[in-house]
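Subject: sequence -> structure tokens, single chain

Hey, anyone have a minute? Need the predicted structure for the following. Not urgent.
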Amino acid sequence: MTATLVKEASPPPAAPVDRERRRRARRRARIIAVAFVFPALLLLGALVVYPVLFSVGRSFFDASGDRFVGGDNYTEMFRDPATLKAVRNTAIWVVIAPTLLTGLGLVLAVLVEKVRWATAFKLLLFMPMAVSFLAAGIIFRLAYDEDPEKGVLNAAAVSVHDAFKDASSYPNARARDGQGLTKAADGSYGTTAAASPGDTVGLGLVGVRAEDLPGSARPAYPATTGKASADELRGVVYLDFTRGGGGEQGKVDRSESGLPAMKVEAVRDGKAVASATTAADGSFRFQGLDPGSYTVRLPASNFAAPYEGISWLGPALVTPAIIGAYLWIWTGFAMVLIGAGLAALPRDALEAARMDGANEWQIFRRITVPLLAPVLTVVFVTLVINVMKVFDLVYIIAPGPVQEDATVLATQMWLVSFGGGNNQGLGSALGVLLLLLVIPAMVFNVRRFRGSQR
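Reply:
Had a minute. Here:
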């Protein structure tokens, strides 16, 4: 059997006119594309490319910008203690803030799925993102204020402290000089003359305003009446001050008030052998004392300054405090992104795990977190980039005296360049350093996005 091969006729070559027409159409499309992209490229070059190139060039000149100094600015950058502290604080930010935010966002995203009003809850947590960093910094500067009358956090701390430990009612009280009381090194007051059972002792203090007296205070004069028994040492602690003048210093007058709720101790051979608390009229008594001489002492706790709360913006806590403000703003962002990834998880895998007897913790740890790993990585790296550039919160929340303790690379760059340093060469070197630190995270994030699109 013979097969006949039939050669198909090839189409005739395109006419030169058609090829030229297609070439012109492609050229026209490129010109139109460039025309549309050119404004964006021009804006990008003016706002990004030119400042970057200018900063790199400026970093090789001195503060005036006239003399070329080579790499001296980069060398000086790592010799400056303030810059080294900024690098350390930036490292703390990069390690702590993104980690906490990613963890909080993950936990909240998982929990919100089980809440009936999930949308309202997400809106509430995401709302701080609508607040500018400037406004958020002012809010937290007030919240962290050391004065409990202004700072809400210290007001809460003082309330909790005072609920478990009584505060002194007489922080400004003191004894008059030469009136029989001497102040010890620990802040306590003791009688200069010895007292024995059967005696009555008057301990007059000043420095307490009449309006600051407790409402339970009563006149001290009745407390001085009567005679003590043979084994009893009695006395009165009173405000040695008469309104309108008059009276005699060192003696209880009829119009002088007792000081209630003060702790009093009977001291013998340097040890407190008895203690008592003054009544509403300032009176106290020690009963069952052995014969001998005693000193009456008012412990320093009676005059301790009231608890003023926590120094949130002090050198030790200023950086954690600012990170707390940052968490308040960005937790909603992390929760929403992770929640979107959580909504895209295959539910059949979760249901299969439940049917196999896995509890919720096992499902979360062995299924949910591994499946969300790409989303968690993107959120974490995005937050790392954002944290490296943080400026507003640090500059606004940290008071002037602790600004150096809270400084990060962005604020240090501004302070060196414009905030009094007036050394834009060194400031440009800091800007270049910050750019070099951000670029690897940006490249990693771009590659992750491209990988997810494929």
